[in-house]
Design brief:
Three copies of one chain form a homotrimer. By secondary structure, chain A is of the alpha/beta class. Helices cover about 15% and strands about 30% of the residues of chain A. In chain A, the strands form six sheets. A twelve-stranded mixed beta sheet of chain A has the order 8-11-14-17-20-25-28-31-34-36-38-39, covered by helices on one side. The radius of gyration of chain A is 27 Å and the shape is flat. Chain A starts with a strand and ends with a helix.
């Protein structure tokens, strides 16, 4: 167990202790349900009442916080309690994140694969022929790295991730459990007898640096060329990215969204959950698409859209408000017609 | 093969045999496509014609069933044929469900993990450090149990399930293949340069007793504290539960629904398929949400909702009926305007 | 590396070389970003300008193509450049697709399982008791084949696929990574105390020939009898097929669509992405359902639908156009009312 004194934390955050500076802190908690030994923070005035009854051993508060009742817990006064707390979270995360390293047997690696130093390869993980794995990469148990895959430094591949042959992944990425990278794009040519002929999918997936991919998300390889997920893209769980899609930098996409084939998203977009984007269109920079929207045509930069098919969010909200009153509108028209 | 006589089944269900009581029954079937050796049931009068031609060796019928043609199959007259059949299903399931036990090598278990009796650990399954596994637990091949996970008695973890470190799972749960429990919540703080900084996700997932989780469903850990799935919750396949969500008791959620972060669902709710619920709201008890609905704000108990954004289902249906006739409404307004 | 001369390719495609017939071709590319050594094609006149600057070593063009500027690349004149390119793709695919065979240890196979010749069983794959595996089947690493499963000739099971006991799979199928076949249907009977009782799911999944199943797609077993996926069905990624659904021949379903329980789809249907279809209905032949549509009742053959609930696509589009102008419609009604 890792333990710090309130004094040490105050020093770390450039704050000031009021109360018992020797109090031992071993975990982080929320002000309204923290346990003894935890540190919490008070930022939103709404939670002020909780500070008088909290079980937390210490609470980060603003420099000028004035209690209105007696307080049992130790206070640490800082400039910004929320930022301070986030900094502690990160510190704690670094210290407690089990720094997995080495090889757990049995693990499979092809003799032609090359690996950097400080690698972790969990039990039952698989690394195919001609793979190039950088330094500090972690490959958790039961992950599959197909032939000819490149993974750059410090990327983490969680348990059960499946990476098809030929995929290229940058550095400092995190790919969560069960994600599938590089599966065949959905390409079938209809034949005259109504059956479908498979179109060979020969491309790959290329993922940039600092990309995060959620659990059970699927990213198809390109028919030819590459499906691109560029630097800093953050994908949530259960997302579908189809063949030849291109997701430009620093975009954030929420769960269960589907990006269909051969389209191109701009920089700094935000896509909410369960959005669908058809193939063969382009999306500009800084576009925001609301939850469950369906995008059927190209979008200019800076647009904010909602609806299926999607259009300007303010216009959508006004139209939807009128939609909710449609039966009343029908009644009014009936009455107008009666007047003739 | 397990075989029973029609007489034995009649005795089991407190029924009465008409025909050959010695007929051997070895499987269950549907009245319209059962094979010889099968038992079927007749409950819905719509299916009556099938009883005169069925190949089933026996059929459960109501006590007062009066055939209108000659019947070759053996009848077993019971109070409620459907309930009787369900009881047989369960009996059959218990008898035929291969009672897996023991360890198939190679399987990985850390020396610090503790396990109860009658455990099944399939080949290539992984149990990490400090895990506590109860008695009668079944861990199928290629399942991953991260460090410090607790699994209580008689829970079944199917093949390829991935459970991140620190997760707590109750007793008598069933987690289907490919589900991911405890992956990082989707938390990224936008920076001034447009990039995102990862917010450490330090919490865990806590699952109650008698919970069922569908194939390839994903449940994220909390940022801090726990994402809660309480007793008796039933989740279908491909569902997304985001960080810090709390699903209270006995709720049922259909496939492909997404529950976003930090919200709280009530007891005894029913969520249909492809529903989306935004973060930071609360849902009352006994709420029903229709398929593909989008819930954007808190919901009181007992509401029944549809639409995106969702509102009262009866009002939605009336508004949608008017929506389908909108072009006609426009035409009527055009005519009214012409009259001036 | 595989290399062909432009002359050889021209011969293969019954075409004619203009330029250097000895040029070595080792890969396929797109005309606007091909690298030296690649062959590309020009079919759409829109791309004509690219042919004057392309780095491709050769380009397939139409027989009567007349360049309007000087061209450095070698031309191969054929009847149909696109078809010719597709043929090359297939040829290339056959040559480069690593023909995996043999057993990578450790792999688990029960002594009672039978297997055909030319099998590939990857490391950490699992084949249960009484399985019957045909010839030329490929089982990639970490795939799970439960007890009593039948897989016919030349089917490919990608990494991490999970197939529950009793499933039957035809020949020439491809099942992509992470797909789950045969998990329990979502069946729970509500009890008087608000809790749910599990209804045993005793059926299986039966998959025909030439079926393609996408990554992380889930197909539940039937309660009784079989969930059927018939010959030539193509399923994209992250699709949910519930218990007792029946998908008839040659249907194509895009990503993230959900087919709920006990319904029956016709032949030659096309379902777009994120569609939801409720249980207990039937869908005719040659039906097309647009993206994000919700189908709540049975559909006759040849219909084309959109919306949630879905109706005729042309009517939907007209109604939606009027919906976008609803605020204006309200204003017009207000004015009409003022005139009285």
């Amino acid at each position: 167990m890792i333990e710090f004194s309130a004094d040490y934390i105050a020093q770390l955050l450039d704050g000031e202790v009021q109360g018992d500076g020797a109090t031992k802190i071993s975990k982080l908690g929320k002000i309204d349900d923290a346990e003894p030994g935890a540190i919490a923070f008070l930022s939103n005035p709404k939670y002020e009442p909780a500070i008088y009854s909290t079980s937390a051993s210490a609470v980060l508060v603003e420099k000028d916080f004035q209690p209105r009742q007696s307080i049992r817990t130790t206070l640490i006064r800082v400039d910004d309690p929320y930022s301070g707390f986030t900094a502690l979270l990160e510190e704690y995360h670094k210290l407690t994140n089990h720094n997995k390293a080495g090889v757990e047997e049995p693990a499979f690696i092809h003799e032609s694969a090359t690996t950097g130093e400080n690698l972790y390869r969990g039990a039952f993980s698989y690394v195919g022929a001609n793979c190039q794995i950088g330094k500090g990469v972690k490959i958790y148990p039961q992950a599959y790295i197909g032939d000819g895959v490149t993974i750059s430094d410090y990327t983490v591949i969680h348990s059960g991730v499946k990476i098809y042959a030929g995929t290229i992944i940058g550095s400092h990425c995190v790919i969560h459990a069960g994600a599938v990278i590089g599966s065949d794009g959905f390409g079938f040519a209809p034949q005259s007898d109504g059956s479908y002929k498979t179109i060979p999918q020969l491309g790959n997936v290329v993922i940039g640096h600092h990309v995060s991919i959620g659990a059970n998300t699927t990213i198809d390889c390109a028919t030819l060329g590459s499906t691109l997920i560029k630097d800093g893209v953050k994908l949530d769980n259960l997302i579908q990215i189809a063949h030849n899609a291109e997701n430009v930098e620093k975009t954030e996409i929420a769960a269960q969204t589907g990006i269909y084939g051969s389209n191109k998203e701009g920089k700094n977009c935000v896509l909410a959950g369960q959005v669908g984007i058809v193939g063969h269109i382009s999306v500009g920079d800084k576009v925001t698409i609301g939850a469950q929207a369906g995008v059927g045509k190209s979008i200019a930069s800076n647009e904010i859209l909602l609806g299926s098919p999607a259009f300007d969010i303010r216009k959508y909200k006004r139209a939807y408000a009128a939609f909710k009153n449609l039966p009343d509108l029908v009644r009014r028209i009936n009455e107008l017609e009666k007047k003739y």
